[in-house]
Structures are given as structure tokens and as C-alpha cells.
Amino acid sequence: MLLAMQLERVFIIKSKDGELRLPDPNPGWEPETVKEFLANTYPELVTANVSAPKIVNDTYEIRFESVLGTKG
What is the per-residue pLDDT across 22-35, written as a single tens digit (0 to 9) for each? Predict the structure, then answer.
């Protein structure tokens, strides 16, 4: 018998101190909307990209990849 279950979404921000795992603020939102919402608290997300989701240990992980530019 197959069981269907909804996986918990977790958003991951890579920081200088490691990875910060954040719970889903609203399961109905698209990942880009979550990024915009969290950017108020985490300004590094303003220029971040949303990576392809992965399923890891029964969680649906979405990473925000920082885009670092260089001057000159």
C-alpha cells in the first residue's frame, strides 16, 4: 500500500557561520515570494537566486544561493 504525505518545506540560507534553516512562512507561497518576504529580515536575499528543490530526509529543501558581485 502506498502512502501519500505532504513534505515540510525548509528554506536554507548559506551564511558565513554555516547554514541557516528557516521554516516555511506560508505553504501556499511560491519560493520566490518567500524569498521576497524573508529579504526584509535577511538583506542578502535581495540578490540571491532560488535553487532547484531537493528532497532530503523527508523535507523539501529549497536553497537561496547568494550572488556575489565584484566591483571594477
Answer: 999 999 999 999 99
Instruction: Measure the CA angle with vertex 48, ends 46 and 49; round to 5°.
Output: 135
Q: Do the domain assignments include residue 70?
A: no
* Cβ partners under 8 Å of residue 44, min gap 6: 13, 15, 66
The overall pTM is greater than 0.70 = yes
Residue type, 8: E
**Is residue 19 in a domain?**
yes
Asked if 47 and 58 touch (Cβ cutoff 8 Å), the reply is no
SS3 content of the chain, % helix, strand, coil (to 5): 20, 35, 45
Q: Is 32 exposed, middle or buried (0-12, 13-18, 19+ CB in 10 A)?
A: exposed
Domain that holds residue 44: 8-65
Residue 37 is given by DSSP the state H
